[in-house]
Amino acid sequence: MPKITLKKIAAILGISPATVSKALKDYPDISNDTKIKVKALAESLNYKPNSFAQSLRNQESKIIGLIIPKIVHHFFSNIINGVIDAASNKGYLVITLQSHESYEQEKDQINSLIEKNVDGILISLSDHTVNYKHINAIIEKGVPVVLYDRTSKLVNCSKVIINDRKAGYEATKYLIETGCRKIAHIRGPLKPQTTIDRFMGYKNALKEHDLPYDKNLVFETEHLSFEDGFEVAEEIAKHRHDIDGVFSTTDLLATGVMVKLQQKGIKVPDDISIMGFSNWFLTKITTPTLSTIDQPGYEMGRKTFDLLYDELCQIKNGESVSHEVVEIATRVVPRNSTKFIES
Amino acid sequence: MPKITLKKIAAILGISPATVSKALKDYPDISNDTKIKVKALAESLNYKPNSFAQSLRNQESKIIGLIIPKIVHHFFSNIINGVIDAASNKGYLVITLQSHESYEQEKDQINSLIEKNVDGILISLSDHTVNYKHINAIIEKGVPVVLYDRTSKLVNCSKVIINDRKAGYEATKYLIETGCRKIAHIRGPLKPQTTIDRFMGYKNALKEHDLPYDKNLVFETEHLSFEDGFEVAEEIAKHRHDIDGVFSTTDLLATGVMVKLQQKGIKVPDDISIMGFSNWFLTKITTPTLSTIDQPGYEMGRKTFDLLYDELCQIKNGESVSHEVVEIATRVVPRNSTKFIES
DNA sequence: AATAACCACGAAAACGTTTTCGCTAATTCC
DNA sequence: GGAATTAGCGAAAACGTTTTCGTGGTTATT
To answer: How many contacts, defined by CB atoms under 8 Å, are there between A and B?
Structure first.
């Protein structure tokens, strides 16, 4: 089954490939007669242009790259989802790679994508990425980059983020409004900027509501696992019966805390309210269901692609490219691990 | 920053592009001197071959397509993970698309991938796909296809599957071995082949252990949701106190059943044992943790790519392509929603 | 009737790489 | 020393598309 090309159509019709190409694209200098003939034949032969040839000629692939720290993760798979949907709408396909939180892999993968001549790259920085040369290098090469979720001020490009500080503030505020006065914060590992910001939000909320900040109420954990939550819960159950609310930097940690607290006979939310972060799937199936902050991955994914698409259009039109930083709104999702607001 | 090409390297060195190309690929008819010179310059100029030109010339893209029914799903995101990892190992990149369980979208997406000249396509059939012309059509065109998880006998290609019947058998057998005698089965919607097979396995296990099959013990649900599990649990709690085990076709359903049963005062596993299916993430965080069947998505993803890669190699070597059907082993994951085996 | 305008099309170059084939000059062989 | 081999390189075509520029012929303008 030989591939059917412009040349062959031209040969059959006894005209030149140039005319066929132009007829198919409705160039004004081709007569209606020829256009109709060409289109009919192309249709009946089921002609599809060879994308390599097009890309080679037009210097664009209509493919973008997406680098994700971890695919198997509710938030990130929602991002993928959003990116792919938005991209297909505009005729772009998406090559996905995961950095596994490794700086080296992140570099390699950016290279692979560049070598495949993708039209642009969407990246969420790995937790172990400490310098940004590799990102800035490709931006200077003229390949548009948009950063999402895990970004850096040291990279000059468009970004899609959530306001972790505000979200942390809202989460804490909600606990306060539902009657909590002694609120613990589980911040997880010290380093990532997101957890730092959420912690700042927590402090702000306390301050604005005239509650004292007590650093003994802040728990660090090595990872963000379910089991790490157990340890914190044990500590609370043993020594800190004054605590009446917990704001955790992650749903999974929060769930661990909640499960273990209940095993220790502490009632949620009657004795202690619990607030998670991200609105993962699991929050809907815990007992009680977990109140949390919705971090809308799908919407972020869509928006991230949209920003890239804007740049792509600007480049194509020869306009100067403008960078944009878009903040996606989070919101408190009240469920049953917190009390109701007394009104 | 002008792109650096073979021609330019040739011009700088005062030799022909052909020689440069051959030098970089270690052709035997190029002298060592020239090879060294060419490689050094290419290195220092950071030369990267233009992938479009290569693809156009070599008729291969080193890109494969992956069609997934739903990305945001623990099992399927593990598949993606496996496919991407295995593919990068061999220098292939992966374009992912999701069919959203729609036949129309599945067709469109296969088309998009074909138009991008991917070297092969991995597909899990959407639940609403009822004929396979679109798949068979591209196979006849010579584009290798491998089906995974949701396959069909009507498509002649390599496949990666789990043995749902055997898995259903093992799950039920495990319940029997841990002392259950009146085992209910929640099979979910009637149609999908997977649930049919799991149901057959359930029946087989009963038969082989001389337990009567009672169709009143088989529950259908409209969807596979958490809430659908509630309804079944209500029914059991109200009318079927003789039931001492439940095998659910899905972890989520099982979790719904378990949560609601416990709310009704029924002890898990003391009064009723519960067995899920898939080993999703959530099974590790329920109370009690959910016994289940491990359906290894990552491994399936890897194997699926491997089969495609085999075909690609065969084609390249001019060998005749052979199809293979690989069965990935499942296993019982004993947790705390079932009793221990008395030994 | 001469000039201008316009219509419909094609030739050719370009995108960058790969590979076949042929050529020259140097080496080997008898 | 002549013939045969070999080593090292390049010309050129090919992959399929796009677009600029030009051309020949027709129609409209004075």
So the answer is: 119
Same domain (yes/no): A90, A45 = no
Same domain? For A158 and A168 the reply is: no
Residues of B in contact with A113 (CB under 8 A): 93
Shortest CB distance from A93 goes to which of B72, B112, B256? Answer: B112
Instruction: Verify if strand D has an atom below 7 Å from the CB of A22.
Output: yes
Q: What tens digit of pLDDT does each residue of A84-128 get?
A: 999 999 999 999 999 999 999 999 999 999 999 999 999 999 988
Q: Pull the structure tokens for residue A328.
A: 């996606």
Distance A105 CA to C3 C1' (A): 70
- Residues with Cβ within 8 Å of residue B179, at least 6 apart in sequence: B244, B273, B339, B342
| Closest by Cβ to B93, choosing from A81, A95, A142 | A95
For the residues of B108-167, what is the DSSP string, one character each?
HHHHHHHHTT-SEEEE---TT----HHHHHHHHHT--EEEESS--TTS-SEEEEE-HHHH
Residue nearest to nucleotide D7 (CA to C1'): B29
pLDDT digits (tens, 9 = 90+) for B145-180: 999 999 999 999 999 999 999 999 999 999 999 999
Per this entry, what is the length of chain B? 343
CA distance B243 to B245: 6
Residue B337 lies in a domain: no
Range of the domain at B23: 6-49
Check whether residue B280 and residue B174 sit in a common domain. yes
Q: Which of B281, B289, B336 to mutate to test the interface with A (most CBs of A within 10 A)?
A: B281
B260: in domain: yes
Supply the DSSP symbol for B209: T
Which residue among B56, B142, B286 places its CB closest to the CB of A56?
B56
Residue A78 predicted with pLDDT over 70: yes
How far is B55 from chain A, CA to nearest CA, in Å? 6
Which parts of chain B register pLDDT below 70? Answer: 1, 342-343
Cis peptide bond N-terminal to A69, omega within 30: no
Number of compact structural domains in chain A = 3
Q: Does any domain span residue A340?
A: no
Q: Do B287 and A259 touch (CB under 8 A)?
A: yes
Question: Are residue A177 and residue A273 in the same domain, yes or no?
Answer: yes
- Whether A285 sits inside 8 A of B117 (CB atoms) is no
